Amino acid sequence: MKNILLPTDFSENSKNAINYALELFKDSTCTFYILNTYTPVIYNYDYQMNTGGYLGDVVDVIRNNSQENLEELKKSIKEKNKNPKHQFELISSFSTLTDEIDLLVAKYNIDLIIMGTKGASGVKEVLFGTNTIHTIKKVKCPVLAIPDGFFFEQPKDILFPTDYKIDFTPGHIDILDTISSLFNSKVHILHVSSNRALNETENTHKEKLNNLLSDTNKEFYNVKDQEITQAINEFQKTTYVHLLMMIKNKHTFLENLFFKKVIHQIGFHLTIPFLVVPSEF
Prior knowledge:
Oligomer: single chain
Number of strands: 10
Radius of gyration: 20 Å
């Protein structure tokens, strides 16, 4: 059984991510934990200024709204999704999103977090929304970010860029292996080199990855003298991929990418689901 965490703020963006999750695991036995967190806007200021009943009343109202909206969401999901393999648990929490997710990952042995992501528009366009960035940075659990407005497509082709600096373990590959098995996907493993051959360590890591994906339809590619963003964009011009996966290791492309404030400076726009797996669990 898979345990999937679905954060929601009841927006269309988050509902779309939930729909994606239900389709992705329609043939799998899963428990979906639907999470809504709330922190009253006045809390940070008023908590120190007022210890009377006023703040408590406000929290009670917001808590009730959260719980009622979760129940309505669950009812709507079950009306559309009559899948006997799926169970739903509701969690309403007076907490920050990333703190609560961090606790729930351990408490319920969460295998994957699926959440909608939406960057701001215009000059300050960003690759991920703030909540997604904080979750990916803090939580030691795979995160699948679904772009705003992206409707489910079977992930028949998955792009996996890597620098082979990871000492791959089954944990790094588990979700990729699960998804590729469900949809008989082809995994395109893309290595961008700086015009040099792989060293002994990198070759060892590549071989471990190959062994871990022994039952997976896969192909290895090597691209020289390109930025990783350029390599990803160029690859997608020739092969339409339905999902992008990367492992978040320190000092890698992802660490820099999350802090870019203007995406067109690096020429990378997220238009497909992005699976980010932590290097450590």
